[in-house]
Structures are given as C-alpha cells and as structure tokens.
Amino acid sequence: MKKQILTFLFLSLFMASSYAKLRQNFYKNTCPNVESIVKSAVTKKFQQTFVTVPGTLRLFFHDCFVRGCDASVLLGHANAEKDHPDDISLAGDGFDTVIKAKAALDSNPNCRNKVSCADILALATRDVIGLAGGPSYSVELGRRDGRISTKSSVQHSLPHPDFKLDQLNSMFAKHGLSQTDMIALSGAHTLGFSHCGKFSSRIYSKKGIDKTLNRQYALQLRQMCPLKVDPRIAINMDPTTPRTFDNAYFKNLQQGKGLFTSDQILFTDTRSRPTVNQFASSNNAFNQAFVTAITKLGHVGVLTGNKGEIRRDCTRVN
Questions:
Q1: Catalytic one among 62, 84, 175, 299?
Q2: In terms of CB atoms within 10 Å, which end of the chain has fewer, N or C?
Q3: Count of alpha carbons within 13 Å of 90, Cβ hemisphere only?
Q4: In whole angstroms, what is the distance from residue 210 CA to residue 200 CA?
C-alpha cells in the first residue's frame, strides 16, 4: 500500500510539473498565428480525405503512449516506432496532416522552425475532432520534439483489441489517466476503421460467435470479412455514424456492437458499464469527459525547454 501511495504521489507530481510548463499562448511572440495556420492546413487536408480525422487522432494517441507526446512516432529512420506491428497500420494521411501543417507554418517567415512537431500534432488533433463534429477545446503548447524513436519502445506500450478492463485500466493508469478517461478516449472509436484480422477471433472460433457480440452484427461482419479475406479490407469501428464524432459508440456498446473485445468489455464489465450508460445517454457528458481526458493525454511525458528540440523536418532528427 505504501509503495502504491508513493507511486501515485510521483505520478501526481510528474503530471503537475508537466502542466506547469505548457501554456496556451506559448508562441505569442514567435508565431502568434500558429493556431489559425495549422487549422487552415488541416481543413484543407480534411477536404481531400476524411481519413485525415481518424488518422491524425490515432497518431496522437500512439505518439503520447510511447515515450510521451514528443512526435517521436513521426521519425522515419530504420527500426523507428512506426515500424512496430502495432504502429504499422497508422494511416499515412495522419502523418501527411502534420507534414502539411508544418509546411504551412514554415512558409510564414515569422513561424519557420519555431513550432514543434509535437505541438503541431496536438493542435491538428483538436482541429480534426472539431471538423468531425466533436468538441473544441484549448490546447496548451510548449512541447519539444523527441530525438529518440525505437521500434522496441512500442512493445507492450499500446492497448490491444483483446484487452480486458483490468489491462486497460493498468495501461492508462501508468500515464495518470483514470478509468473514466480511458472510457472517454475509447469513444474516439466512433471514428475510423479497423482491419478484419483485428477482430476475426470474435466471429470465427471453435466456440462460435463471441457471446458478447450482437449476433446479427456478427453475421454482417462475417459477410464483410469472409474467411481468408484480403487483409487490406477495412471495417468502420462505428457501424452507425462512422464520420461523426458523437456518442453513438456507447450506444453501440449497449447493443453488443463493440468491434473489439476491448470495446465491448466496457459495457459487459459492471465496473465500467455505468460510465458507458452515462455517455450513451448524454453526448454533452461524453464531450466534457473526452476534453478532460485528451487534455490530460496531451501532457503525458512532454519534453520542454532544453529537454528536446524543434525539428526542422518532422520525420528526421535535426
């Protein structure tokens, strides 16, 4: 118990220290138009393809959970984070969103090489959520970019589709995120898609269809994902409103339509079910909880001051 208290105090001090170093007007004197420039570039990319939204949001999550929110996931050298199997499916449009926003900033003489890639990713994430109909929120800035990105650092750092509640809570707690934060962030699965192989065990097994899965939905999934299906086939995470950031994800869980085990467990486990029901009944409650959670996520392991750098190229160390 004493060890747990000390660990909690350490995490609290770490989180408080991170919060103190970031602020909303960080670029006021160096690049005052940073937010409008990034939003314009992100909007242009969004108009080209909707994949910009889930791609950028997932990129931010994967970045922050591995080595903190330092844009290390963008680095492209051999055996970098994005080469790990858990990252290899990250959408190219997410990377391109950050690269386009960086180019837009660099085209402004006042902003050239003044804004970190980590801050650009944080701002772009907020902007794509808004473009999909989600809540707007303030983003505190001042992150520096990491210099290290290794394939091995991703191992055991990201939640998997077959995780149960205790595994999810444990992984999120390592980053100072509560069960409510975890459930709210899982709501991002109201957007985007997955590949058949990530959930095939739920619809094809010796025991038959997973009993926690809505049977009619499972049969629909079998039609879209037949045995030996092309692994590139993608299925919407949210079968109802896949292009809108809303609380439909939680309503789907109530009906047994969570695509992953790690989704459906949020409803089948009685410890997390009340929060799912709350978010399903109130889009406003979900939005408020999501803003709280993603703001906390954006402070995980940040580098500030001279602990990192501002990369001239988001894909390479200076």
A1: 62
A2: N
A3: 23
A4: 10
Residues 6+ away with beta carbon under 8 Å from 132: 53, 191, 243, 244, 245
Q: What is the pTM of this model?
A: 0.92
Closest CA to 117 of 55, 158, 60: 60
Q: Specify whether 189 is catalytic.
A: no
d(Cα 139, Cα 291) in Å, to the nearest integer? 10
Please state, in angstroms and rounded to a whole number, the distance separating the CA atoms of residues 182 and 168: 8
Measured between alpha carbons, how far is 203 from 220 in angstroms, rounded to an integer?
Answer: 10
Q: Is residue 287 within 8 Å of residue 165, measured between CB atoms?
A: no
240-275 pLDDT, tens per residue?
Answer: 999 999 999 999 999 999 999 999 999 999 999 999
Going by C-alpha positions, the residue among 129, 112, 66, 120 that lies closest to residue 95 is: 120
Nearest to 275 by CA among 179, 171, 163, 188: 179
